[in-house]
Amino acid sequence: MIRSSVSNCPVPTEQQPLNEYEQLRTSWLFSDCALNWRQHITKMLMLWSFSWIIAGPVAAASFPPHKQIGQFLLCGAAGASIGVILLLVRLYLGWYYVSDRLTSRAVFYEESGWYDGQTWIKPEEILNRDRLIATYEIKPILRRLQLTFAGLAGMFVAGSIVWHLL
After folding, report:
1. Which domain of life is it from (predicted)?
2. Nearest to 91, CA basis, from 53, 125, 43
3. Which H/E stretch holds residue 119?
């Protein structure tokens, strides 16, 4: 973990925004957000494919594949997308939380429990460093997640149009 350059920082090490960023960046779930577009889309498609294990039988119960193949495929695809959406929401909220803590001048922290919270005002040098990290490291990740959401929304709209044409 990266230590703050200010030795009088009262925030516990694990609650310092820079250390929260480092922890998120190196975790197995959140580190995938920093991959290139191709790898990111491949991971999302793998999750979507894996979600068909649950979505396929549910869709088949509603729309028998041998009778209503179009509805079965659209319903299964939409159902499988739920896993992707839940993952994207989790990733977005985690990165957004850390970005908010990095860009905020005041940092709320807990000394030993929920009942004794304090607020620390970042010195200017720490604030500038943290804002640079948020701008150049986290903002592109949030943008990628937003574009992935937009792509999914576009596919849902296209699927709805196709559904009404069937």
Report:
1. Bacteria
2. 43
3. strand 117-121
